[in-house]
Amino acid sequence: MVYNQDGKLKQRIGNHGTKPGELINPTGLAIFEKKLYVVDEGNNRIQVFDTDTGRLISVLGSLGKDPGQFTIPKALTIDTQGNLYVSDNLHRIQKFDASGLFIKQWGRYGGMPGEMADPIDVSFSNDTIYVADLVNHRLQAFDTNGDFKLTWGRHPEKMHEGMGRTHYPAYMKASPDGKIIAVCEPFEYRCQIFETAEIFNMKPVNVLAWWQKFPKFHYGGGARMARVKDVNKVMNAVKILSDETSLDKKKQTNEAPVDILFITEPDIHRVVAFNVDSDANKMTARWSVGAFGDGPLRWQMLSAKSVSISRGSIFVGDAGNHNFQEIDLLTGEYKGTHFGPGTGPGQFNGPTDLAEAPNGDLYIGDYHNNRIQVFDKNLKFKFEFGKLGDGEGELFSPMGPTFDPKYERLYVSDTGNLRISVFDAKGNFLFTFGRRARPGEWGNGTFLQPFDVAVSPTGEVYVTDPALQLVQKFSSDGKFIKQWGGWGTKPGQFYKCKGIDIGSDGKVYVIDFGNHRGQVFDSDGNFLAIFGEGILFPKDSLNAEGEPKNPIH
Fold it and tell me: How far apart are the C-alpha atoms of 91 and 338, rounded to whole Å?
């Protein structure tokens, strides 16, 4: 959208789509000599428009990992010579000349100076390229040839600490004279201002981030549970921790089935598993698999956003490589990589969750293609439903397709439309529930960011909303029942609650992403426990602030 100085709409450039001149999730822009450069993230390209007419001038790049190609481009900036600098999900910066010809690239995945972990924004000033290094929680500076100059910011040592410490710095802008740099951290709801004269004189520090202090963890948003009869056969993979505690003193039997809670860690490209004994209420961190990679090699992931269970396998949705990795649930053997990028049948642009029907059919969310795709048990495409829009049966960035216990209803988190859309197994639209929260409203059936959906064994529907910091509970027909949460760090409060699933005993497991912990509730939202890296703290072992009464070191 182009507005005049009075805030009136002057011009609209682009429409949703994949054709030249169309856009999917534009994430950044820059202007140079009456040319508008737009990061077309969903189409893995840069598009250039005339600022006066909106006419498409050229298209730069395509999906790929080679020089001149992009894998989820994030941001761009332009120097005084018209050279273009673009960051993407391969943790690199690419430089192009004013005509769009590739010049060079620098950066690789890592935490050392000059390495990057999701360079999400870039800004040019005074012959320097500044980079917001999101997952490393820092800022970096390079010269225009890509030579490293310095890094600053550093992750906070205390919860929500500022004063130069940065937590997921997502946006930055350097002043034209290079004296001031503004850095915004949406995760912390704040911006910080730095003087370049000061940051170039900063001394490096080396302290642990607060989430690296046991038992905090750094897990992401995906969470799913599976019921397994023989826990001793579970995944001969990388063991991480084996500490365990219990919510009560019931005895565990070797024959008792257990739930396994799988959680994604997109920041470090892996999936971890907890054994959760539904009878003894024990939780044990058992293993993790995964590594950074641009695939489709085994366990290599760019962005492990979702994890789902089907036909004795774990399916990890990799939003960066637009595919699923299948791993055997019991042996840990890599079974294959399925699907790939695109808009056609069997292709994805940001795969999300997977739901399995009794006949083995798989229902998969396709985030940027705004649809649900359906495959048979052999992963052969059958049909799709949904398209971009806000009408009945239409979707906008769908996540979390989840069946009810009778497999009569498929619940989809229709995130862009701020609602839950419900379909039958044939893809026929049934109904929606929820709407955008108006000023003064706080949940009670309304949403600001519906994220994940879980359905209990008795059919109740639970939805997380990391913007409202709430879990909301609905009947199977979408009638609001209750909610719990609220912003905070105490037991029962959330800071960006994301993944959610229900144990076979009805307990509700929520990934409290911003507080770097998980929480356990009963079906009515009563707080039961906090869990972290390989250990669970029952309610009676915590103080009022949610910290263990007897800390473990």
Answer: 24
Cis, peptide link before residue 215, omega less than 30° from 0: yes
What domains lie within the chain, and their CATH numbers? 2-210 (2.120.10.30), 214-541 (2.120.10.30)
Q: What is the C-alpha separation between 282 and 260, in angstroms, rounded?
A: 11
Beta carbons of 514 and 498 less than 8 angstroms apart? no
Pairing, β 340-341 against β 347-348: parallel
Render the burial of 125-155: b for 16+ CB within 10 Å, e for the rest: beebbbbbbbbbbbbbbbebebeeebbbbbb
pTM, rounded to two decimals? 0.80
Distances (CA, A) of 297 to 303, 321, 323, 334, 335: 14, 11, 11, 10, 11
State the residue for tokens 């003894």. 280
Rounded to an integer, what distance in angstroms lies between the CA atom of residue 484 and that of residue 522? 11
Inter-residue contact 326 to 336 (CB < 8 Å): yes
CA–CA gap between residue 136 and residue 148 (Å, rounded): 16
Number of residues that this document lists for the chain: 553
Among 140, 128, 55, smallest CA distance to 92 is for 140
Tokens (6 digits) for 278: 């539904």
Assign 188 to helix, strand or coil: helix
Is the torsion defined by CA of 192, 195, 200, 201 positive or negative? Answer: negative
CA atoms within 13 A on the CB side of 63: 14
> At which residue do the structure tokens 């969903």 appear?
42
For residue range 384-431, list pLDDT tens digits in order.
999 999 999 999 999 989 999 999 999 999 999 999 999 999 999 999
Burial of 25 (0-12, 13-18, 19+ CB in 10 A): middle
Task: Copy the structure tokens of residue 449.
Answer: 């960011």
